[in-house]
Design a protein that fits this description.
It is a single chain. The protein has about 725 residues and is an alpha+beta fold. Strands 3-4-5-6-2-7 form a six-stranded antiparallel sheet, with helices on one face. A two-stranded antiparallel sheet has the order 1-8. Among the domains are: about 80 residues, Serine Threonine Protein Phosphatase 5, Tetratricopeptide repeat, CATH 1.25.40; about 120 residues, TATA-Binding Protein, CATH 3.30.310; about 130 residues, no CATH class. Bound molecules: zinc ion. The site of zinc ion has 5 residues, from loops.
């Protein structure tokens, strides 16, 4: 990194570098090069040399601490910074570095006073230093699953770091907003409400807003709460206090403030949104939770274990994806452990959801790595329910001879799987709606979710004072809380790919739906929260609003809302071309596929194909859409249009696209005895490509059992 001698000196003297620490420029440049080239040992030796002649220079000191940090010497780095901090308590670089190191070393709460000081001192004077601190706070919060805090610090980092890291921070933001593990109302944007300039607490509210603006959320939250106590009917003050507390990672306190905001507001929609956030945070921190657990069982041989599982219907095969972590041993197999075998359809007519197996655990079998002295191990993961314990027990019985040591239990970090409030446990009991059930799957899934809604309606809930939704329906004092409970259920079902008819539930409980928003055509709608987005009258939006809202819907992914937005886009050709028609048809297809609406998925594939056919230079797109429609229809080989699509693919595309040829060959291999038309000579696939068991890089409907709850991978033709 080149050092500009006409910039202010990094030592903080306020003079230009040329007239201050000019004597050490050459050496410091050399050191920064060593740091950039990942040679921290050499950098350390060099900085220690300079430090002898410049023992009290904050520039040298902070770089010293930085190098120690790069070497993993966190304690030494902190000691060095503590020393500097004593002599230069207001030096922005010193304060920002000290806060960062303390955060890494002692955690958020212990480091908080220093962190606040850093934001106060450095927000304008050392934006890069403190931007790095904000980025680290985003990381720390994200790991502890304080999602609202993580997002807020990420936006702070984006403001402070500017262009330099925009791309990375923006991608991180999209990942957070689209993370389906987080209930959707807690995701994406939430902004503080402004306080009226002529209000009685304007001065204090301004102060709170300005310190929140420099990321001092703890103190800002305390000021908002104090003035909210003085103006108890000003609900937005309570909401501001709640947001600041959530951003300060004090979620139980945030929940309390959201409850107060809900209680204070006369506006039903505002109250319901605050109460929904409160209930979600309460559930997240409920004292009675079911923890995710991992049981590691060392085994003699992965392949012999798989031999033992072979043909056992309680172990449902999942596709294997190797872990991205290069250190992890290779995965030999993955299975879902079921509590019973999948019933055969022919036995006694249609299957009821009660007969379907529940998923009790996930089994991952790791191969041994002898050269690294790593044994083979079977790992069972799941929520610590009685069904999980049962699964562990039956696995141990089955694998008895292969087990070498007693199983070990490990806690799973909340960043991988979150604990679940016991109240929500019934909905997280996953059923295996396997592809074996074919077209009836959707119906069975619908019945299952009707059953879950029935359970929900009659189960006591902490948010309703231990009463059930049905028993408080019609009681005015529960109106807001009940409506919020409905949205909590909706967010759980969204997360689990469930099918819930929100309007029907609302009507049955005697509630009024939330009133739609009425935005003026000029509003960009980019700061609406997820629950506000749901209230948008999509067909009344201006074109640019619709495109904006689509971009947000595509990230947040609330299926019901995204469907509405995309269907509206199709009615407006000018908008459709702007966002790309393929993406819209693919998005609608994917949601239909996720929801097991096979006919709808096929219809969208057909429309996508027809749209591509009208476009110029469409060979590749037409090929993808034709193949997609064929694969969807081929799930049911009796579909009358399968033959025609097969003909088109084999005549036009297979000769030029090897992947298409492979898919067709596989289809022929699987269906030649069932479908007489496949045997006629003129349909033979013209291709030299060797048949592959799974078509490389191409998606097949039957190739993805995808029972994993919450998986929300949007598939696009042409993508992996
Ligand atoms: Zn200087």
């Amino acid at each position: 990194m080149a050092i500009d001698v006409y910039e202010l000196c990094p030592c903080g003297s306020g003079k230009k570098l040329k007239f201050c620490c000019a004597g050490i420029i050459d050496e410091m440049t050399k050191i920064s090069r060593l740091q950039a080239n990942d040679q921290p040992r050499q950098a350390l030796a060099a900085i220690e040399r300079i430090e002898k002649s410049n023992p009290d220079n904050p520039w040298v000191g902070t770089v010293h601490a930085e190098i120690l940090l790069a070497l993993g010497e966190v304690d030494q780095a902190q000691a060095r910074l503590d020393e500097l901090l004593k002599r230069h308590p207001d030096h922005p670089n010193v304060v920002a570095r000290a806060a960062l190191v303390m955060l890494l070393n002692q955690g958020y709460r212990a480091a908080q006073p220093t962190i606040l000081r850093a934001f106060q001192k450095c927000f304008t004077r050392a934006p890069e230093q403190v931007g790095l601190l904000a980025l680290t706070l985003y990381d720390v919060m994200g790991r502890s699953r304080f999602v609202m805090a993580a997002r807020q610090y990420l936006t702070v980092a984006m403001r402070l770091l500017g262009e330099k890291s925009r791309e990375n921070t923006f991608l991180a933001l999209l990942r957070l907003d689209g993370d389906s593990r987080t209930a959707y109302p807690l995701r994406s944007v939430q902004n503080l409400s402004p306080y009226p300039a002529d209000g009685p607490s304007a001065a204090e509210a301004n102060k709170a807003a300005s310190i929140a603006n420099i990321a001092c959320y703890g103190p800002a939250g305390r000021i908002y709460a104090r003035i909210a106590e003085q103006e108890p009917t000003h609900a937005e003050l309570w909401r501001n206090a709640a947001l600041c507390r959530a951003w300060d990672a004090d979620e139980p306190a945030a929940a309390q403030a959201f409850h107060k905001a809900a209680g204070a507001s006369q506006n039903f929609e505002f109250a319901v949104e605050c109460e929904t956030l409160a209930q979600l945070l309460d559930l997240k921190h409920a004292s009675d939770r079911i923890a995710p657990t991992e049981v590691d069982i060392p085994i003699r041989s992965a392949s012999r274990l798989l031999g033992l599982l072979e043909g056992n219907e309680l172990f449902f095969t999942l596709p294997v994806e190797q872990l991205a972590d290069g250190e992890a041993p290779p995965i030999a197999a993955r299975r879902l452990v079921l509590d019973r075998a999948m019933p055969k359809e022919s036995e006694s007519g249609p299957i009821a959801f009660g007969e379907l197996p529940s998923i009790a655990a996930t089994l991952t079998v790791f191969d041994a790595v002898p050269e690294r002295d790593i044994e083979a191990v079977a790992v069972l993961t799941g929520l610590a329910t009685p069904e999980f314990e049962q699964a562990v027990e039956s696995f141990q019985k089955l694998a008895d001879d292969e087990i070498t040591k007693a199983p070990e239990r490990e806690e799973i970090a909340a960043s991988d799987i979150e604990p679940i409030a016991r109240e929500l446990a019934p909905y997280f009991r996953r059923k295996l709606f396997s592809a074996a059930l074919g077209s009836k799957q959707r119906t069975i899934q619908e019945e299952w979710w009707k059953h879950l809604v029935e359970i929900w309606s009659n189960a006591p809930q902490a948010a309703l004072d231990g009463k059930s939704p049905t028993s408080v329906a019609g009681d005015a004092q529960y109106r807001v809380r009940l409506m919020a409970a409905v949205y909590v259920l909706d967010s759980v079902s969204e997360r689990l790919n469930g099918i819930v008819d929100l309007e029907a539930i609302i009507a049955r409980l005697g509630l009024e739906p939330l009133r739609p928003l009425a935005p003026t055509p000029a509003e960009p709608l980019s700061s609406l929260s997820p629950l506000q987005l749901l209230r948008l009258p999509v067909s009344e939006l201006s074109d640019s609003q619709l495109v904006n809202v689509y971009r947000r819907a595509a990230v947040i992914g609330i299926r019901r809302f995204a469907t509405r937005v995309m269907e509206e886009l199709i009615n407006r050709p000018q908008c459709l071309e702007q966002v790309g028609p393929d993406r819209i048809y693919e998005g609608l297809l994917e949601i239909a596929h996720q929801e097991e609406r096979d006919r709808d998925a096929i219809a969208w594939a057909k429309k996508g194909r027809e749209h591509a056919a009208r476009s110029p230079q469409n060979f590749e797109r037409l090929c993808k859409w034709t193949l997609t429609e064929f694969l969807l229809r081929a799930e049911d080989p009796d579909d009358p249009e399968v033959a025609e699509l097969f003909r088109t693919l084999s005549e036009y595309y297979a000769p030029k696209v090897p992947d298409v040829a492979r898919v067709l060959e596989q289809f022929v291999a699987e269906n030649a005895d069932k479908l007489p038309w496949l045997r006629s000579a003129e349909l033979l696939v013209a291709s030299g490509a060797a048949p592959a068991p799974t078509p490389g890089g191409l998606w097949t409907p039957s190739g993805s059992p995808a029972p994993a709850a919450g998986s929300k991978k949007i598939w696009l033709p042409g993508q992996e």
